[in-house]
Design a protein that fits this description.
alpha+beta; Immunoglobulin-like; six-stranded mixed sheet; five-stranded mixed sheet; 10 helices; globular
Length: 552
């Protein structure tokens, strides 16, 4: 096989240029046993893989996402005849050195798998150093690897002559899980969590993007019906006082989103409370992991605000990320950005600030200030080898920023119209940046290639500054001359605010196209100070030069 970088770049290019055909489901038969005292998962995965390509396959590729948070080790891989097959982590050569990739795994077949044929392989493996929160384990089949990632070898499809390591393919699942005597299992695929006397749990589901299990000793349950959606909330005893608030807030959010899109996100939604976690909120298929980050203040009103924004963001991802998916080649900025923008819309309706969205925006600005590439068409598997949190900075931070900029540029009504159309057109289909651009141009009647070139395909940054201010008295009042600079590559209109000594404020829009420009503005009174982008609506990476005081 080719070196990793070439392999990934070719896969990314192919994904961008070619349509995505429908795939037959991979079948997973999973058997696991949790050894709680050792934080160890002993497992066996029987995987039936269909060759949907037009080529014979001499090998198969699998993802070992659990290696981002734990250690997944394959003991052996056998075929249906019991033959142990040669297998190993994927190896590539870089700077004359052979390197093993812990996230990709190769299995070499004794005879090529012909187009249209299937093969059944059984992996025997363990996962050690399982992440846990208290005594709870979260086996979340998370394509963004914010949690454990897939906790089993996940098959990689071979399409259009390329392996697609970031392509999520629906699967048919059966699972048998055994846990210790003081634990039980929650899963969003089951209508209820059934407590088994022998602590053996069995579940099955078809045509789902992944399988999530929460293993816990001490959760309580509160449930409700929201139209035809079954809502379940699992929580530890010390969070019981918040359970009515969670149900009420989730109900209000679901009703708002249904009014916007015409449908609820699923027939079932499970929310699981976590005492603490490294991520603000994690959304998977019909599942939301909700960390207790909303009750850290003595200000109860502030705590309610925090709870609302976490729930709103988690539920928004059931629409953008689950109902509408995104090819995993690049950071999922479209679905994350639209989920955050939808959350922003809900909170605006409640006249509530969106502190989480502001925090993500700052993560993007920090990455830009530190010189990291912020182009959104960089393959994820390359970004994962960089020493910064690209998901928070690009998928969340810059994705949210792009849609906030489109809101300013096109108007909220046009953006909401495009958003609704994209939700309908891409139901259970991957969405692309090209589709977003086309829809935005259609609803607005504007050519937007310049916008998507600098904010999506390039890593351009925005940095404006005030260079000078001169104020002269005239026969009719005063005339202010404001010297402005464009220090970054990105170009966006920006508001200039002149604060007058009589208390008035005069606003002027600057197109920001020139590297150096002067605005001459007639004002009725002397100018006290000038502010650039006073509402902080633009993603300016350096705001220290956005203020100029007239000391005279």
């Amino acid at each position: 096989m080719r070196p990793l970088v070439q392999f990934l770049r070719a896969a990314a290019l192919t994904a961008a240029l070619l349509p995505s055909p429908a795939l037959a489901e991979v079948a997973y038969d999973l058997r696991i046993q949790l050894i709680h005292e050792n934080r160890l998962l002993k497992a066996e995965a029987a995987i039936t893989y269909p060759n949907e390509s037009t080529q014979e396959l001499k090998e198969l590729m699998f993802r070992l996402d659990a290696n981002t948070q734990a250690k997944l080790q394959v003991q052996e891989v056998v075929n249906a005849d019991g033959l142990v097959l040669p297998s190993r982590p994927y190896r590539y050569t870089y700077l004359d050195r052979e390197i093993e990739d812990p996230l990709l795994y190769q299995v070499f077949l004794p005879t090529p798998l012909k187009p249209g044929e299937k093969i059944k392989l059984t992996f025997r493996y363990t996962i050690s150093r399982l992440p846990q929160v208290g005594n709870n384990y979260y086996l979340i089949d998370d394509p963004h690897r914010r949690g454990l990632g897939s906790w089993y070898p996940r098959a990689i499809p071979f399409l259009d002559g390329q392996w697609k390591p970031e392509r999520m393919v629906n699967g048919n699942y059966t699972v048998s899980a055994k846990v210790s005597e003081n634990q039980f299992i929650i899963t969003p695929i089951a209508p209820v969590s059934i407590s088994s006397a022998d602590r053996n749990y069995r579940y099955s589901a078809e045509r789902i993007p992944g399988l999530d299990l929460v293993i816990t000793p001490n959760f309580l349950l509160r449930s409700a019906e929201v139209d035809d959606l079954q809502l379940r909330y699992y929580y530890p005893g010390d969070m019981q006082k918040w359970s009515p608030e969670v149900i009420e807030s989730a109900t209000n959010i679901l009703q708002f989103y249904k009014q916007r899109y015409g449908v609820l996100p699923a027939k079932r939604l499970t929310i699981v409370a976590v005492e603490n976690a490294a991520y603000p909120v994690l959304a998977s298929h019909q599942l939301i992991i909700l960390p207790n980050r909303f009750s850290q203040s003595k200000n109860e009103y502030l705590n309610h605000q925090r709870l609302t924004e976490l729930l709103a963001y988690g539920i928004a991802q059931q629409y953008w990320g689950q109902r509408v998916m995104e090819e995993g080649i690049y950071p999922p900025w479209v679905t994350q950005g639209l989920a955050l923008y939808l959350t922003h819309s809900y909170l605006q309706r409640r006249r509530q600030p969106f502190e989480l969205g502001d925090a993500f925006t700052e993560r993007y600005l920090l990455a830009a200030r530190q010189g990291w590439s912020t182009a959104l068409n960089t393959p994820r598997l390359l970004l994962e080898r960089q020493p910064y949190d690209h998901f928070a900075a690009l998928a969340q931070g810059k994705g949210y920023t792009v849609f906030r900029l489109l809101d300013t540029l096109l108007g909220r009504q046009a953006l909401e119209k495009a958003e609704k159309s994209l939700q309908r057109a891409h139901l259970q289909r991957p969405i692309t940046a090209a589709a977003v651009q086309k829809e935005m141009e259609l609803v607005s009647g504007k050519e937007l290639d310049w916008f998507f070139q600098q904010w999506v395909r390039d890593g351009a940054v925005l940095d404006y500054g005030i260079q000078s201010l001169a104020v002269n008295k005239t026969a009719k009042g005063f005339q202010a001359t404001v010297g402005l600079q464009r220090l970054g590559e990105a170009i966006m209109p920006v508001t200039v605010a002149l604060v007058l000594r009589n208390g008035e404020t005069v606003f002027k829009l600057w197109d920001g196209a020139q590297t150096s420009d002067r605005l001459v503005i007639d004002v009725p009174a002397d100018v006290k100070e000038v502010k650039l982008d006073p509402a902080k609506a633009s993603p300016d990476i350096d705001r220290t030069n956005n203020f100029f005081s007239n000391g005279n």
